[in-house]
Amino acid sequence: MADNARAKRLADLIREVVAQKLQRGIKDPRLGSHVTITDTRVTGDLREATVFYTVYGDDEQRAEAAAGLESAKGILRSAVGAAAGVKFTPTLAFVADALPDNAKTIEDLLDRARQSDEKVREVSAGAAYAGDADPYKKPGEDDEDDAAE
Questions:
Q1: With contact defined as beta carbons under 8 Å apart, do 86 and 79 qualify?
Q2: Is 45 helix (H, G, I), strand (E, B) or coil?
Q3: Do residues 19 and 53 make contact, with C-beta atoms less than 8 angstroms apart?
Q4: Which residues contact 56 (CB under 8 A, 6 or more apart)?
Q5: Contacts 24+ apart (CB under 8 A), 37-43
Q6: Number of Cβ within a 10 Å radius of residue 31
Q7: Residue 116, SS3 per DSSP
Q8: pLDDT tens digits, 27-41
Q9: Measured between alpha carbons, how far is 26 from 13 in angstroms, rounded to an integer?
Q10: CA 1, CA 42: separation in Å to the nearest integer?
Q11: What is this structure's pTM?
């Protein structure tokens, strides 16, 4: 079992090699400049690597990029093996990164919260208090209420 520092170094190397190979070495039109490698994680035994990627485009381009990455998996693994110089080159698994979708969902929720806050501000702009302007009793007021009874 490798230490975490070695796994981190290998993950960083894999991310760089895969990104460079996608940019310069692979001629697949499905893997144009709209594919970005965002993160890489390697298991503790250095046998498997998960490469996270994002695709700039619609769902059709995402599906094409996923198919292109699957078809280029062998070439990319060979490039990683040549660059890493390890005894066993890790297998590569490509996973679409959910971070952009999560960020968009959070942005949408924040926009709805801002709109709701604006509606509350509009409604409360001309509102008056339900009771007196000063709801707290003063020390001398208790005596007046008791004397009136």
A1: no
A2: coil
A3: no
A4: 34, 36
A5: 38/97, 38/99, 39/15, 39/97, 40/11, 40/12, 40/14, 40/15, 41/11, 42/7, 42/8, 42/10, 42/11, 42/14, 42/90, 43/7, 43/90
A6: 21
A7: helix
A8: 877 777 788 888 999
A9: 18
A10: 12
A11: 0.69
CB 66 within 8 A of CB 30: no
- Buried residues in 73-103 as b, exposed as e (16+ CB within 10 A): eeebbebbeebbeeeebbebebebbeeeeee
Give the CA distances from residue 63 to residues 59, 91, 98, 132, in Å, rounded to whole numbers and listed in that order. 6, 21, 14, 64
- Report the candidate in 100, 89, 108, 85 with the shortest Cα–Cα distance to residue 39: 100
CA dist., res. 138 & res. 140, Å (int): 6
User: pLDDT tens-digit profile of 113-129?
Assistant: 999 999 988 888 877 77
